[in-house]
Amino acid sequence: MAIKDTPEEWTVTASTTPFTGNKTSVRTDEVVMPDGAKVTRDYQVHPGSVAVLALDDEGRVLVLKQYRHPVRMKLWEIPAGLLDVPGENPLRAAQRELYEEAHVKAEDWRVLTDVYTTPGGCDEAVRIFLARDLSEAEGERFEVAEEEADMELARVPQEELVRGVLAGELHNNCLVVGVLALTAAQRGTGLDALRPADAPWPARPFEA
């Protein structure tokens, strides 16, 4: 049996937006259940994100340590950012985030995996890219602010990140999924068999 997520949309009889923030909002939908009952579902509406697992020639992954206020922790993460413009090309957004957060560019890009971070309460979709053949970007460094001004940057061996994930020491969603997906791909058909960087993304359709 093929295991594959499938699109489906249950009837929504009413929808309101009780909160609108700077980047996201909260929506309340009245949804018709299979038995005909109506229930309300509150969820965060999110523009979507991209993340970059940047792997260097020594098998190290580029990671950043950043304060995350909702969980009151500094988390090790891979470079990531919002899709600020509707229809924005996710590859270009990922290249921008890698440049802005790490001042790094990459010559080889692949789609590592696509995920919904918290589908029970948020519609955020994230495309995680694999970036290889890394080098320092040209020009001046991007000027960071707020939480990003306190970021730490490191290159950590892949196996150390896997160990930290399984030990419960690393918690960022994109880092966890990205590192484990990378390891699975290496042990499977290989990194060159990953989807191309411009592969379709139904969760967030984009322009070429």
TrEMBL record:
- Domain Nudix hydrolase: residue ranges: 44-183
Q: Which Pfam families match?
A: NUDIX
Keywords assigned by UniProt?
Hydrolase
**Which SUPFAM superfamilies would you find in this protein's record?**
Nudix
- Which Gene3D superfamilies does the entry link to? Nucleoside Triphosphate Pyrophosphohydrolase
- UniProt KW Hydrolase keyword: yes
Q: Which GO terms describe its molecular function?
A: hydrolase activity
ATP-binding in keyword set = no
Q: What is this protein called?
A: NUDIX hydrolase
Question: What's the source species for this entry?
Answer: Streptomyces siderophoricus
State the taxonomy lineage: Bacteria, Bacillati, Actinomycetota, Actinomycetes, Kitasatosporales
